[in-house]
Amino acid sequence: MPTPHFLWYNGTFIRNDKPIVSANNRSFRYGDGCFETMKIIRGQLVNEALHMQRLFESLASLSFSLPSFFTPTYVAQQIKQLAQKNYHTTLARVRLNVFRGNGGLYDPENHFPNMVIQTWELNPANQLLNENGLVIDIYRKAQKTTDTFANIKSNNYLGYAMAALWAKEQHLNDAIILNHKNTVADTTIANLWCVTDGIVITPPLSDGGVNGVMRKHLLQSIPAAGLTCLEKSITDAMLAKAEAVFLSNSIYGIRWVQSVGDYKYNWGITPVIHESCIMPVWQ
After folding, report:
1. What's the predicted TM-score (pTM) here?
2. 53 with 114, same domain?
3. CATH number for the domain including 41?
4. Beta strand pairing status for 229-231 and 184-187?
5. Could you tell me which of 4, 100, 116, 267 has the fewest CB atoms within 10 Å of its CB?
6. Per-position b or e across 92-101, b if 16+ CB within 10 A of its CB
7. pLDDT tens per residue across span 135-177
8. Do residue 83 and residue 142 come from a single domain?
9. Residues 251, 252, 253, 256: is their CA dihedral positive or negative?
């Protein structure tokens, strides 16, 4: 008989097939909350400090009232305990979701950070740079805002969810989300980068993309590898002229893109970035 798979909910381990929220849940009703997606390698959270920094900044922005025990150390400990219970310590994906709980739009019961943690085992191939480039395109039915909450991994994920459905219907690997200026914000599950004249470029956070942890890591590690890296708005014209395009997130590091619509690319310097900036984190 297979070992039961558990999730963690407010201090308790629960079988992952058991319901844990009511129809009055504010995250279910309004998308009130945020989440983190993290990676475990050999029992340790990759870029743990950066993930905890982003999580607690998001909780402050969303006006949660944190009890004294609710610290970065506490959260990280619960993640690792769940991974151990699920035998997911070698290589695993973690999703942590925080939400406000029950209540109407104007009358939440409280501002306590209810938390759910889940883990899943990852295939070792996840550690490798993709051999076949991703095929992606621009989703034009949604535009990302550039307001105070745009950079948070919010539970309000409608635009991304619709873009992901569209990408699947179109047999694409991902979809680009634009902002109201028609420049790139990000994609459904990643931050986007392009390489032009040897310069690595990613949109600034003011263009509405999620404040990715791997994005932050790359902004520090790419210059350390001797490459020029800029935060600059990415337009359709820039995608047309780019030498290479790649995506980044905390689970797969980076993946190179073969095409954006009719625009075609090759590996470019993506293998160099993977070897010098991603592999040291994985090891």
Report:
1. 0.95
2. yes
3. 3.30.470.10
4. unpaired
5. 4
6. bbbebbbbbb
7. 999 999 999 999 999 999 999 989 999 999 999 999 999 999 9
8. no
9. negative
